[in-house]
Each structure stands twice: as structure tokens, then as C-alpha cells.
Amino acid sequence: MTSPPPSPYLPMEAEVVGRTAQTRDLFTLRLRLADPGERERYAFEPGQFNMLHLHGVGGVPISIASDPEQRETLDHTIRDVGRVTHVLAGLVPGDRLGLRGPYGHGWRMREAEGQDLLVVTGGLGCAPVVAAIGYAVQRRDRFRRLIILQGVKHAADMIWRERYDAWARLPDTQVRLAADEPAKGWTGHTGLVTELLDQVQFDPEQASAMLCGPEPMMLAGARRLRDRGVPDGRIWLSLERAFQCGVGHCGHCQIGPYFVCRDGPVFSFAEIGWLLGTKGF
Amino acid sequence: MAAPGSELTAMSTSLFLPRAALQSLFDVLAAQGYRCIGPQVCDGAIVYADIDHAEALPVGWADLQAPGEYRLEPSGGERCFGWSNGPQALKPLLFAPRETLWRSHRDQSGRLQFEAVQPPRERWAMVGVRACDLAALALHDKHFLHREADPGYAARRADLLLVAVDCSHPAETCFCASTGDGPAVQGGADLALAELDGGFLVRAYTDAGAAVRDMLPLEDASPEQRAQAEAQTAQAVSSQTRRLPSRNLRDALFANLDHPRWEQVAARCLSCGNCVAVCPTCFCHTEREVPALDGHSSEHQRQWDSCYSAEHSFLHGRLLRPDTRSRYRQWLTHKLGGWHDQYGRSGCVGCGRCIAWCPVGIDITEEAAAICGPPGTEAEP
Q1: What is d(CA A232, CA A222) in angstroms, rounded to the nearest whole number?
Q2: Is the pTM higher than 0.90?
Q3: 20 to 30 Å CA-CA from B338: which of A101, A180, A186, B54?
Q4: Are the C-beta atoms of B135 and B347 separated by less than 8 Å?
């Protein structure tokens, strides 16, 4: 009898080495794989995700927020919204959990090199784009214009102002903020983040766009980018579904011809545009 | 699936096993170390369970199936396989309804250990498999073995010998001829039988199948017996009245996502998931944690799931598919649409189980025709 293949579902042991709170319900766990060999083998690209498993509780998919060349530890920015993430929120350095991954396809950062890079985010704590921005900022000379557009519902939700200010000071980098509901002293745009796409300067022929947020926002953004001349194949979107297995087996993230966990979570608008925004998919 | 050439080879070398010698099949399988699983009558249905005697087969039983109906009736004859199918296919045997994938252990210091569960290894033989089940198996092979291989499925699959039977009595709900998957076995098994009144034509497709065949008390099949088997298959094809509009409905379905029929079928559908449970190709499963009371160990299990449940489309605090309309549409557009992109063919093998076991008798062929146009309006690919 041939021996069965190694399990693609088996987690590795990871240790919490740091915890930072961003807001009341948003926090970042810095994890380190316990086994040096596994740490050595582990490699990811921005936009990919891990499954984090809590002993006796369950697992959740979480995007990797740190830089791919930082091999020692892995950052996971998490919102405390459910049963498992609530327990994750209570972890402290020294605690152990299971980690398996990375899964799926991330942002095509290499394809975007030499071009204008637009990063459009709706809502806060969108970890996949934090990874993309971090990647580009660390390698600023590989990209031409860097345009960061961040939208929030209420101006009061706007956190990380110092981070956006620091990015805005980088060469050839533009940061624009939008709030649906402005507060007193709001200097950003009032309205949808996608409206900012008409106000920024970039070369559509030589641009890649990366979008993350609610699907109606991504759809509106992708359409505006298309109208401005960015090809569908260079408009990238990160989808979110209830991933359980991470390898295209469990079926929860099936959409049209894809399993989002395996074929995404980052898709081009050319691949997913025809289904995006269709209720029920 | 075996290539057409190997089918001809298998047919041309067919041999005959007299009915009185059928027990020898079970004896040979046992002697070669196989645990034997076969069809039996249980609780008014044909189910698959351990079997070591030919008399335990559903001798003299026929199944009457219709939308929302399944009933066994005595047929009076000696036939063992004179019925089409029961609620199970191969699915529960290879893709276990519930299975532990791994265990975690926590020691006093809080360190964790993750241990993969090794599936028990056992050679086993499945007798009575139909062509539709083999087509479904080939699809599950693609799903569970290609790219990332599922260890439990891979182990059970590697240890399995398939003894298939040509379907001679399709039910009213069957439409395997239209999907191209039956009623006769076209390969994909180790050994295949064609049941005639006096016994069985036997053909082997693999070395493992030939090793079993060679130990059976076989006679040469007569030209009459072969002609009888061919006529029986032709009759099994012509008796099927249902069919899907086309073998590839992908574009037609996705072009009709707002068709009013979705609303109409949702008004009848109970969203119970019976169709998913009996479908031989549905593979969705959910994972859950089952901790031991002492807190030191925990089992990570998976169990069958259904896209008709609310939880299936749960995404932090909201449901992507909050109503039956979107859930039925998810099931049908995936089964008959998305599968073409993902597995190179439709996810429907024409077994008709979803029609018979639907409590309200929703008929997939009728719904597909209402949404995509009736059969004949689109050319077969």
C-alpha cells in the first residue's frame, strides 16, 4: 500500500511574540513559527492569508500584514468581530496557537513594478492593502507614482493619521482621505473614496491599481479606473469569504469558476468583474 | 475513465459467470483480502454495507422512483441488480460524512502539538457500483486528489477495488444517458458485470480486476448472451425520458441569474439540503473543533455541509445568501455551470437522486430547462 500524502490541513505551532492594539477592536498579533525549519521554509507574498487555529476553539483566515522579507515573524491585523477573533484578541506574548498557510494568490507586486501604483481602500484595518502599501514603501524606487486613497464612513473613524502623514512625505507619493460623514476640521474629501479617482494624477497606460474593501466600493472603483483607461487586467481586488480549508476543498468560498481561497483572494477585474456585486455570490 | 479502446478489449474478452456461481465472487474477494461492501435492502431502501454472501444482495427487488418518491417493490425475478440506485453512492465511503482531520495537544507549559490523523488502511471492494457513481467518483478524484491531496480520501481510494454493474433498470428519475455517464459501465472500474437472467457477463479493466476474474468459475460468453446484454443496455438508454437541455449549461445559467424561475423554485424548495446529501458529487464540508473536557486535547473535525444552510454563506455577521432563491441558484449554477471551469465537465452525472429524495419533488432537469431553455434548443457540444 502506498502511504497517504502529508496532510495539507495540519497547522504548525506558532508563538505570540507581540500584540499591538490599533483601536478598541482592532489589534495586530506578531507571530513566530516555533520550529526553526518551518520558519526557514515559510515564504509568502503580500495579500496572501494564513489560517490561525486556537486550540479547542477553532480557526479563522487572517491576511498577513508584515513584509515578505521579514522572515522571522508574521504580523496579523485582526478585528475582534466573532467567536474565534474574540479569543485571539485576548492572546498575550508567550501564548501558542496553530498556523497554516500561506494560501491563495496575493497582489502581483512584481507585475506592478515600474508603473504608477494606486491603492484604494474602503473601511479601516484592511490588512491586505496595508501589506501592499508597506511593500511599495519599502521598495519605493521600484514604482513610479504611489497614490494611496483611503475612505471611511465617519471622519472620526480615521486612525493612523501619522502613518498616512508619513507616507504623504515620501517622494512622488500622494495620500488622499475621504469620509462619507465629515467631522469638524475635516480637511479630506467629503464623499466616497472612489470619487477621489477622478482627482488624482496618474498614467492609466502605465498603472496598476489594488483595491480592498466592501464589494460595492471595489466595483465602483474598478469601473472608474476602467473609465480612466486602466486595463481590467491591471485592476486588482482582494475578496473575502469564509475560508475554512484554504485549499479549495471545503466549498465555502466557491464563486463562479473559482474558489476564492485558492484562485484568489486577489483577482483581476478581468477575472472577477462579471460576478462582482451580484447579490448571492 | 478507460479509453474507448480498452472498453472494446474488455467487451471482446467478456466471459460468463452462471448465477449459481455468484457466491464465488464474494469468496474470491475475501480470499484476496478484500473487505466487501455491497448493496442490500435496509429500511425500505437500497444501501451499501458489509456483505459476504450473494443472498444478501437485493435479489428480486425493484425500485420505483419519481419526483419526491422512492419505494422498493418485489420484482419477482432472481435478479440481484434489477434496480437503479439508492440514496447513497460511493460518496459516504470515500468522503466520510464526519472525519477527524487532526488533533491538537496542549502541555502544562502551553506548548501545542498538532497530530495528523492517519486513516486506517484496509483493502476493500465495492460491489454493485453504477456508471453514474463511477463518473461521480472520477470527479471527486479531481477534487480531492489533484493539487492538494486529501489524505483520508487518498488512502481509502488507493485501497479500493471497484466491481461495477451495468445498469439494466434505470429509474424514472434517471438521465445518465443524457449526461453521457451511463447506463453501461465505460471504464473507471476494476471489474464490471452485466446481469442477464441466467448469470453475469464479466469483464475486467485492470490487473486487480483480472486477478479476481481469473479465479472465478467462468465460461465463455455466447454471442447470444452478448447480444442480450447489448439489447438490455439499449433498452436502458431508450427508457430514460428525462434529460438536461445540454451537457454544458454554464453560459446559459450565468446569463440568466435574474430569471423569474429562481423565485418560483425557491417558493417550493425547503432549503433542506437533501439534494446535497444524496448528490454523489457535492463535496462541501464544514470544519469544527471538538475539545476534550480536560482542555488538553482537541479534535479538528470536518463534516458534510450544504450550500442550502445559512451558515454556508456566513461572512462575519452577515449572510451572502440570506434566502432560498440565492441558495438554490448557488447550487445549480455551481453544479451545472462552475464545475465546467473547475473540473472540465458538469457536476451532474444524471443519477436522479436529487429528484427522488427532494421532499417536494423539485426536478433538476425541469428547472434547468425552465431557466436555460428546453432540450433541443441548444446544440450538444
Answers
A1: 8
A2: yes
A3: A101
A4: no
